[in-house]
Amino acid sequence: VSTQSTGLTDCCQMSLLSESQEGEVLDDEAGSIVAHCLREIRHGTPVSKIAIPTNFIEPRSVLEKFGDCLAPLPYLLRANKLDDPVERILELGRWFLIGSAVSKTSGVKKPFNPLLGEYFTSTVSHEGTDLHYIAEQVSHHPPITASYAECREAHIVLEGSVHTKCTYWVTGTVGSIMNGGFRLTFTDRQETYELTMPNVLCKGLLIGKLRTELSGETYIRCSQTGLQLKFKYKEKPFMGGKMNGIEGRLLRRGCKEPLYSLKGRWDTEVLLTHCRTQEVTKYYSIDSAETVMPRSVGVWDQRHFESQRVWFDCVQAIELGDHRGANQQKLALEDAQRKRQKERDAGQRVKHVPRFFELDTSTGGWMYRQFCTEPGAGATLQFGGSISAPPGSDPWEEEGEGTEQGGVLGACCGEDHVWDEDDNEEEDDFHDCNNEFVGVAISDDKIELISRSSSMNSIHNVSYLNAAEAEHFFTPRTSLNRKLGGRWSPDMDSALSVAAQHFNQACALLDEGEPEQGFCEFQEAVRIAPDYDSWCTITAGRSFPSRSSIAE
C-alpha cells in the first residue's frame, strides 16, 4: 500500500493522537469501514484510491491537530524558569505527555490529509504570554509536515518536521510511523531539546474492537545538560490489560542507573518514582492539568490556502450530517490536487515552493525560513500568521486559478486577505520539493540549478534562472549558519574564505579538463558557503567555465 494513498492507509492516520474510550463498543464502526472498502474493491477501485467515508473524519486538518501539543503552555513556560536542569526536563515531560492526552478524541476518527501548500496558524496564550504556531504541508508524496512555534518574550523556539509513513500488518492493524522529530530551544540558555513522536496504530480492522493506540519509544534529550527522558508507549495486550499505558526513565549521560522512573496511563494519571529514595509522587493528573485552547483568526479572514478555509465546505457538510456532500467536497479537493500535480509533471504549471519552510541540506529535514535561536532575535509570527509576506505563490493560484470553483473549493470566491500594502505575490514557484539539490552550473549571468529526482532517481536541471530568482532556491545551510541564525561572525568569514578556495580549485580543475574532480570541489564550495550573499561575494567578477563543460 503506497504511503500516499488516501484509502485503507487513511485508517492508519486516524487522529494523530486519538483514542477510543475504553469499553466503548466500536465493532459496528469497524465492520462499516471494512464493508465500505470491500464494496469499493468489488467495484474495481484500486486499494490506494479508496477514500475513507467522512463519517470517520475528524473535521479538521492534520496541521491543526499537530498544534494541540501546545495546549499545555503553562508547563512549557514554567520549564524555562526552573534553574535545576533535572526539574526542567521533567516539566517538559509533563508538557509533552499532557499534550498527547489533550489531543485524544473519542472514537476512531482521522483528520483531513493536508493538501500540498496548505498551512495553519494558531496562538495559545497564558497570563499575557503568547506562543504563535505555524505548520505547512511541504510535500505530498511523501507526506511531510513542517512546524514552527515561537514565544520570543519567553525565549522559546520549537521547530521540526514529520514524515508520516504507513504500514499494514496481516493481523488487521494499520500503523502510521512518525519519522522525524522536533527541536525545542530555550534561547536565553542556549539549550536545545530533541523530541520524537510516538507511532499511531489503528487496531481491530479484522478482529476485536476498532481502536487507535500510541506505540513505540520516544525521548526528550538535551546534549547541553546530558539528560534524556525516555518514554515507552505500551499497547494493550491481546488478552486483558489496560489501554494507554506508559513507562519512562530519566537518565544522565555516563550513569547506568536512572534518576527517576515513571509509570501509569498517559491519558489519565502518571506516577513518578525517585529511584534512589523510592519516593513516589504524582507526576500529573489529567483532571487537574493546566491547558489553554489554541485560537485562530476567523475563517473568512484567512487566506485561501489556510486549513480552516480550505476545508470549510467539507466541515460544514459533516457538521450538518451531510456525509454524501462532505465526501463530494473532499474528493473535489483531492482530485484538483492530483490535476495540479499532473500539470506540474507535464510542465504546464510552475513547480511548487513551500512558503514558510525550506529544505535544510545539513540535516535532511525542513527548517523555518526565518529560523533563528539568537536571544535577541525579533518575532517573526503574530496572531494570524507571519508578520512579513512569505515568498512564492498560492498552490492553486499559480496560473490565476484562485477564483476557479468546482475543483478547488467554494470558500475561495471572496476577497483574499493581504499581508500588507507592499505584498508582492508575482513570483513563480520553480522547483519541486521532492527534488534533492545536488549542484549549480554557472554561465555568464545565469545559474543552472541541478537536482536529483527522488521519485525517478535521475539527475536533471531544475530551471534556467537568473541570479535574482536563484536567491530563493540557493540557500545552503551549514550547522554553523543555523546555530548563528544567519548572522555574520569571524567564523563565517573563515567559512567564506574556505569556500572561495574550493571554488578557485574547481575552476582550475575544469580548465585542466578534470570535470569530475572539479565538480567535487564545486560541491564543497556550495556546502560551505553560509548563504547566498556570500556566494555572490565568492563568484563576483569571475569568468566561469562554459555551461557545457560543467554539464559534462
Question: Could you explain how this protein is built, in words?
Answer:
- With 552 residues, the chain is α+β, with helices and mostly antiparallel strands.
- Helices cover 26% and strands 28% of the residues.
- The strands form 5 sheets. Strands 3, 4, 5, 6, 7, 8, 9, 10, 11, 12, 13, 14 and 15 form a 13-stranded antiparallel beta sheet that branches. Strands 20-21-22 form a 3-stranded antiparallel beta sheet. It has a two-stranded parallel ribbon with strand order 1-2.
- Strand 3 and strand 4 form a beta hairpin.
- The chain is globular and about 75 Å long.
What descriptive keywords fit this protein?
alpha+beta; disordered C terminus; globular; single chain; 26% helix; 13-stranded antiparallel sheet; 552 residues; 3-stranded antiparallel sheet
Number of helices: 13
Radius of gyration, Cα only, in angstroms? 25 Å
Which runs of at least 5 residues are low in confidence (pLDDT < 50)? 1-28, 396-437, 452-490, 543-552
Going by helix content, strand content and strand pairing, the class is alpha+beta
Shape: globular
* Main beta sheet strand tally, sense and closure: 13 strands, antiparallel
Helix amount, in percent?
Answer: 25-40%
**SS elements, strand count:** 22
- Return the average pLDDT rounded to an integer: 74
Strand content: 25-35%
- Terminal residue distance: 39 Å
